[in-house]
Each structure stands twice: as C-alpha cells, then as structure tokens.
C-alpha cells in the first residue's frame, strides 16, 4: 500500500468488499499442500461422503485466510492488532466467498493508542454465513 493512502475509520464505514472466485478441487489440493492440512474431508470425496457431507469442502483456515486478505486489501498488515473468528457454516465446493466488513466502534488500546473495531463476515454467493468475527485495527502508526 502507498504511504499516501487515506483510511477511513469512522463508525459505520463499510470496507471495500472482496469476492473470491469459486472454490475448486484444484484450490483445495493446493491449499492442502501449502498448509500441510491433508484432512481427507477436504480432498477425498469418499471420506467426505462417509462423514455425511455431499462432497469435499473448504478448510476453515482457508476461509480465515480470505478474511485476512480482505483486511490487508484495506489497511497495511502492521495495523491489524487482532482477529477473532467463529465458523458458522461449511464452505462448499464451487461456492464463491464474499468478504465484507464495517467499522463498528472506536476504541483505545491498552497502550493508549486509538483503534477501530471492525465487524467481519464471509458469506457464500447465496448470502449464507460461513464465518463471522471482528478485527481490531490501529488507527495511528505502530510505535
């Protein structure tokens, strides 16, 4: 990001949305290889069906990574002080991820620095919630 970028941290500010292209088997295989997470539910159709799922589905931490990318599209990584997420649904094969967020509160960090609390959500293209959470973003530069 450019040093001339202006960030808006006012309560109610909606972050620029991020849409991730549909999840494919190839992306699941690449993520499994990169992360070392080879749980069969994510890469083996038979294992997923034996567990009661219609097919393989996305890794929870892949969804978390998309929300991290969503935040770093908005602010520099060093402004992110914390992220807390809760998985609310399974991310199915061939679904698109729609990442959204909104500034919900101005806060003060323990060191007295100003920050903003941002509400996060990842839904599929049908509006079904898959991940919800919040992040704390420093308003000033890191000391």
Give the secondary structure arrangement, pairings included:
Blueprint (H helix, E strand, L loop, with lengths): L17 E3 L4 H11 L9 H6 L9 H13 L7 E8 L9 E12 L5 E10 L5 E10 L5
Antiparallel strand pairs: 1-3, 2-5, 3-4, 4-5
What does this structure look like?
The protein is α+β, with helices and mostly antiparallel strands. Helix content is 21%, strand content 30%. The protein contains three helices and five strands. The protein has helices spanning 25-35, 45-50, 60-72, and strands at 18-20, 80-87, 97-108, 114-123, 129-138. A five-stranded antiparallel β-sheet has the order 1-3-4-5-2, covered by helices on one side. A hairpin with a 5-residue loop joins strand 3 (97-108) and strand 4. The longest helix is centred in the middle third of the chain and has 13 residues, at 60-72. The radius of gyration is 17 Å and the shape is elongated. The model has no long low-confidence stretch (mean pLDDT 92).
Key terms for this structure?
143 residues, alpha+beta, five-stranded antiparallel β-sheet, 21% helix
What value does the Rg take, in angstroms? 17 Å
Q: Looking at the structure, what is the overall shape?
A: elongated
* Percent helix range: 10-25%
Count the helices. How many?
Answer: 3
Order of helices and strands: EHHHEEEE
Strand order of the largest sheet: 1-3-4-5-2
Helix and strand content put the structural class at alpha+beta
Chain-averaged pLDDT = 92
Tell me the quaternary state: single chain
The count of DSSP E runs of length 2 or more, i.e. the number of strands, is 5
Distance between the termini: 19 Å
How much strand? Answer: 25-35%
| Biggest beta sheet attributes | 5 strands, antiparallel
Unreliable stretches (pLDDT < 50, length at least 5) are none
